[in-house]
Amino acid sequence: MEMRKPLLAIFAIALIGFSIWYFSAIFLYVVIAGVIALIGQPIDTFYGSLKLGKFKLTETISATLTFLTMLSVFVLFAIIFVPLVTEEAQLISSISRTDALASLQAPIDKIEEVLQNFNVSYDRGTIQKYLQEKLMSALTAANLTLVLHKTVAVMGDFFIAFFAISFLTFFFLRDEKQIITAVLASVPEDYSTRISKVLKESKQMLIRYFIGILIEVFSVMTILSVGLTIAGINNAFLIALFAGIVIVIPYVGPLIGAGFALFIGLTTNPEMTMMVLVGKVVLVFGIAQIADSFLLQPFIFSNSVKAHPLEIFLVILIGAKAGGIGGMVIAVPTYTVLRVIAKEFFINFRLVKRLTEKF
Fold this sequence. Notes:
Elements: H1 4-22, H2 24-49, E1 51-52, E2 55-56, H3 59-93, H4 97-117, H5 126-139, H6 141-174, H7 176-185, H8 192-230, H9 236-246, H10 253-268, H11 274-305, H12 309-345, H13 350-355
Antiparallel strand pairs: 1-2
């Protein structure tokens, strides 16, 4: 009998792992909906506390108002940024390969001059030939058609995901108590109190974390949009939106955002020399990164995760090794939940005491 319990536990863990892998898309929808529901929790609490005389909003009405509020914000962003994305796509499709190569000729000449000064041996014209081949490949009709087909496919997947996530988010907001009751009913009665405490603490910490991330995204977007606008770079809002979103990817996100800014800048600012453009982008992104690293991230981690920066760094490295960029994104919230679980069930271990002493 004693041997059966560990075997059953191992079998249950393996079954759960296989289910997550096999139904990964559905699992992803559930996770995204859960995150959105956590972010919307304070709004739902606000609507739920409203009273009109003796009348108090029901859970269904407050959940509906919360969902509509978040949907309105999403639609507003779409109205602002979709035309910018469409305009940029049209501009890229109309780029002349000859003009693009001509605009790169001055930087190529400077690179070749530097190489000659350092006596680096190479075939003259190699850089220009390489860029010409890559540019022609990127701007061929076949590639643009392929991109169009992929875009249509992605849009189809997007609408399916949008409907599924919206449906799940609404019911997560409305039926939170019923969901928690169902989870507690599925565990042994001896553990129900501890599990309830884990769920409560995890929920509070994750709400603070994701709201903090939301503040970080909007703050970085604001700094970049204002900075790039002052610098005279076109499509500053589009660049700021993309860079603000990818900032949630630790360490790599700012580099991706800066690369996107350079690409958009080169295609929409023909009057600006490459060196000036690079200098302005580096300056603005440098200011945003300093503000993010020394003001925003310490605020988020100290008030939500309550972990040492070294812990966060190591956790993100482990997440990157295990799941790439996706692993880096979910590493910190996953670690947060694991710490709550460890505090409740393994508090007698000195390492657990050390890692959870700030809770």
